[in-house]
Predict the 3D structure of the following.
Amino acid sequence: MNLQLTYCISTEDTFLLLDALEEDATWLQSNNSRLCLEIGSGSGCVTAMLAKIIGKQNAVYLTTDINPYACKATQQTAKHNGVSLVETLQTSLVGSLLPRLTHSVDVLLFNPPYAVTPPEEVGSNGIEAAWAGGIDGRQVIDALLPFVEKLLSPNGVFYLLLINENHPLEVVDIMKSYHMRAEIVMERRAGRERQYILKIQHEQQ
Amino acid sequence: MRLITHNLLQCHVKNCNSNNFPLKIEDAQVELIEADYNPEFLVNMLPKIDWPVLVNTAKQLGLPEIPAQVPEDAENNEAFLQGLHSVLLETHIQQGRMICPGCGHVFNIKEGIPNMLLAEHEI
């Protein structure tokens, strides 16, 4: 399988998410995924990689980003990598996709704005939306967590990137309260940051 | 924006809880872009599609007609699946707007990207 991406500017956190997807490639291919959703798609590299793994014509790849330039970048990266079934929306988190996507998302991806910042930096549509996570870097992450159970299909899986300051084990507990099973599947130090990939699924899976 | 996406979008303005789907498409600039045909994917997607909404949207946009109901032999009906492929995946709305039938909110589509963002007071 050719998993090379072109025209893709990635940072360390993106690579960790890409590695997690590559690690699960065989499973993702056999899970009959047809509907994928990346929240805060930014450059679009992660969705392009997912499409290369699952198959460009085997699923529809929805992406959202609050920033219009990020939406454009996602579109361009998809194009350069020959992934045609990418559908880009400018919206906040999953705004306008629920309730229609209820229990429909087979693969959910989120590399969130996780940096610890003053809370007032959260909520802009500008470039700081890419990193500003407010208190514990968790404000945007926590806004999404209540919807995860509703979004994921019965076999659906959610890959979430976190750093140490986000208290990943606390997120595991929050997901438990929604009857979701969460586990840390990857961990890496990148400069001063310790980054994690949380894999979240319905409890019965 | 393809029609598959339009079929999944609903108005999310605060307190707009009824008559908020489907969004009405206006002033659409439609472009047909060829896509690889994958019948298996189409069959898999069928349960997710609000069929009457897709039929109506295709009609409004003047696209080739698709049957009012999903045929029973859909899985093996090549002509049906080809038609669905064209409407669902090859039809792109590049410019235009979508209007909520309930609250009248306007969502613009520019260069193929719908803007579903709401203002602070609408959330």
